[in-house]
Design a protein that fits this description.
single chain, 180 residues, alpha/beta, two-stranded antiparallel sheet, 5 helices, 7 strands, globular, Thioredoxin-like_sf, peroxidase
């Protein structure tokens, strides 16, 4: 199976086939509204504004699995994002990204690009310490570690890069530009 064989549920409960994104560069992000990384919505919106017409699509999948940082209904989450960050990209129904109830799409994404580290800096060190406290073997586990983990998919449907929330949004931007 490839990425275009998967579907996700929209906020309105309709299914969205990722086949609709064939030929596009796709950034898939598990998001949260009450997280220290929530301001990344601003950067995501800028990416969308700058590169949507060149073929970028952003797939926002809110997730409440990490410290309950995405409370509220799907409509409340959407209202927060559009009012607070003026987001225009597709936002799906809240979903799980790890465990028995994880979206099948996330199983595929993690299989394609496992965890490679948080990078450097204070936030990266803090995330590493938090994950280590929960699971000393976290580095060997491909699971999503926190909100705002991003998967970059090229125009042919290949998952080419995984960005942890601690990675620079400037690096994400450069990787997106390289694929466009």
């Amino acid at each position: 199976m490839g990425i275009y064989d998967y579907s996700v549920e929209k906020r309105n409960r309709e299914m969205l086939s990722l086949k609709e994104y064939e030929g596009k560069v796709l950034l898939i992000v598990n998001t949260a509204t009450g997280c220290g990384f929530t301001p990344q919505y601003e950067d995501l919106q800028k990416l969308y504004e700058n590169f949507h017409e060149k073929g970028l699509e952003i797939l926002d999948i809110p997730c409440n699995q990490f410290a309950g940082q995405t409370p509220g209904t799907d409509d409340e989450v959407h209202e927060f994002c559009t009012l607070q960050y003026k987001t225009e990209f597709d936002q799906m129904k809240k979903a799980e990204v790890n465990g028995a109830n994880a979206l099948p799409l996330y199983g595929y994404l993690k299989e394609q690009k496992g965890f490679e580290g948080f990078g450097t800096g204070v936030k990266a060190m803090a995330m590493g310490a938090m994950c280590f406290a929960k699971d000393p073997k976290y580095k060997k586990n491909p699971d999503i570690k926190w909100n705002f983990t991003k998967f970059l998919v090229d125009r042919k449907g290949n998952v080419v890069q995984r960005f942890e929330p601690t990675h620079s949004m400037e690096d994400v931007k450069k990787a997106v530009e390289a694929l466009l």
